[in-house]
Amino acid sequence: MQLANKAAVTGVGDTDYTRDAGGRSALSLQLEAALNAISDAGIRPQDIDGIVMPSPSSPVVAEELVTNLGIPDLRFSTGTPLGGAGPVAALQCAAAAVAAGICSHVLLSLGRTGRTGQKIGARIQQMPQFRIVGEFEAPSGALAPAQYYAPMARRHMEMFGTTSRQLAEIAVTTRQHAILNGNARMTTPLTVEDHQASRMIADPLRLYDCSLESDGAAAVIVSAADRACDLRQPRILLAGMAEGHPDSPSAITQRGDMTRLGLAKAAPRAFAMAGVTPADIDVAEIYDCFTYIVLCQLEDLGFCGKGEGGAFVEGGALGLHGRLPVNTHGGLLSQAHIAGMNHVVELVRQLRGEAGRAQVPDAEVGLVTGYGDLGDGTLAIMTRG
Amino acid sequence: MSQTTPSKPLPDPSPETRPYWDGLAEGRLMLQRCADCGSLRHYPQPMCAACNSMATNWVEASGEATVHSWTVAYHPFHAAFRAELPYVLVTADLPEGVRLLAQLRDATAEALRPGLKLRIGFEANEAGLTLPVLRLTGA
Predict the structure, then answer these.
(1) B133 and B87: one domain?
(2) What is the ipTM of this complex?
(3) pLDDT tens-digit series, residues B31-71
(4) Neighbour count for residue B10 (Cβ, 10 Å)
């Protein structure tokens, strides 16, 4: 069975993205986003018969969604525990479930109180994916994602001459998009000089290379493509999907080539499934926990060669009128850190023509990626169908 | 909530990883070598990924290393490390074919370049845990 175009995204929803959700629970935020997505699709909560939780270690479990939404006959429930690669992995998982006829309308739900709840440095110490680095690296003082990922960026700089100012280009362009969005946490303009003056977090990553901690939720409905035709929204077909796992998935330190992510393995599979090439992509929502991770993924996706990412992002290339509009919502860097579920929502809005002031004209083919834990990669290519 | 400074993270060794930590306590960096196919591996794990044997020997590393990459920690992600900031974490290639992550001693990051020679040393922290550290050989 070929999965291409067997499933479609039929609904998207989100909450306000804030610094502080005023004490609301992650469950409350997720329910609001889920209802918005269900309403957007033009279905009823009772029509949901599948749930994929992209972050199953989050405080919310599928049963709570069933209980609150009043879902009478859930036929498929699972999770995709790939950290920030989870939401896009969940798209593939849901597509496979509806293509196989297990269920018809799958809810993907992610939301958290990342700002007012537990901070990332404390969260990851409890995650099984980080057990190896927790035993062998944390005692020496490598404790947080910024510290685990920074050596990848430094190696890239030493091997290819990539500069901090090139990383700044990504932060600056992403901020420009957030300012246009209307539901973004960071709305003041940012310059390369602001980036260069920002404090160092984990060299070479400065403050403005790092994503936000945010409160909020986003949700997506994936439906069987044939069931999507008569719903409220134009269907957005899932044309190509893949996940890829890096060498040495538990420790970046032991990875032969630490400038190559799991996405490098996934990308050729997804492009082949969709029958398109990087040159066909009109808009790309690239997981941006850190600026460097965007640059590395652009290479691993094939938009440029390995080592050419620094030059690729220069000169506003990732802007709305650049060669490849990227993170048109403001991303994790400037909209909110909703673990990339906000990237999925934004791509769907772009392909529907609903992206407001940040709309890429005539966007017909788009791409969204996820990046999680210590290098897991996922991508989905979507088309207006 | 308590305002006392939390202690540094300590490993919770499994039977498979305990020889590594016991070795460090004696000032020796021990690496696993597959008893069947001879492949060296690190970090410690029960199975050889090359031949799937679980028969394992331990061998002492030569103590030599070279710079592969690094970061400098500035932000206090963990209160127990705040007093040491900034500290340099070096990813080092060992001639045995595996890598080591350890703090740099007696130099700053400005001195680092990929391929520079390092020497592995050992230091006990305030919790009594012995960890590897790295120094440039100056050669």
Answers:
(1) yes
(2) 0.96
(3) 999 999 999 999 999 999 999 999 999 999 999 999 999 99
(4) 14
